[in-house]
Amino acid sequence: MKNEEELLKNFDNIVGTNKIKRIDRKKFPLILKLYECFKEDMFVETKEYKELKQEKQKILEKINESFNSNEKQLFENYWDIESKLSSIVEEEIFIFAYLLRDEIESEK
Fold first, then answer.
1. Which of 43, 71, 86, 108 could serve as 67's disulfide partner, Cβ 3.0–4.6 Å?
2. Whole-angstrom distance, CA of residue 88 vs CA of residue 62
3. In whole angstroms, what is the distance from residue 105 CA to residue 108 CA?
4. Which burial class, exposed, middle or buried, applies to 102 when counting CB atoms under 10 A from its CB (0-12, 13-18, 19+)?
5. pLDDT 10s digits, 61-70
6. In 3D, which of 84, 86, 102 has the Cα closest to residue 31?
7. What pLDDT does 40 receive?
8. Percentage of the chain with pLDDT > 90?
9. Going by C-beta distance under 8 Å and a sequence separation of 6 or more, which residues neighbour residue 100?
10. C-alpha closest to that of 100 among 21, 16, 1
11. Exposed e or buried b for every residue in 34-50, given b needs 16+ CB within 10 A?
């Protein structure tokens, strides 16, 4: 993970811990692998998710009908970046959840 230290510092600042000094960083590749498995294999689309996905597709089709080629390219670039940003946030949330669980276990 590129921003492992920054992530741990942020976690410590938000939660008020000192995880950066106490966590075994060798676990991070496994945590990230679990996250990838979760994204690919463990996520089950709910009814609400499917409905929102269909609505999004309808809106996207309307947008694409009204855009010229330059606007379409700009829009695609925007959504590529938006997707990357969302992935970073999702990964961070997953890791924070693990760190929180680890912190709770260590306090028992």
1. 71
2. 28
3. 6
4. middle
5. 999 899 999 9
6. 102
7. 79
8. 40
9. 15
10. 16
11. ebeeeeeeeeeeeeeee
Phi/psi of residue 32, nearest 5 degrees: -65, -35
What is the dihedral sign for C-alpha 49, 32, 102, 17?
A: negative
Distance of CA 108 to CAs 19, 21, 31, 46, 70, Å? 16, 19, 22, 35, 58
Which tokens hold the place of 108? 């028992």
What is the chain's mean pLDDT, rounded? Answer: 88
Q: Which two tokens stand for residue 36?
A: 């990838």
Q: Supply the pTM of this predicted model.
A: 0.74
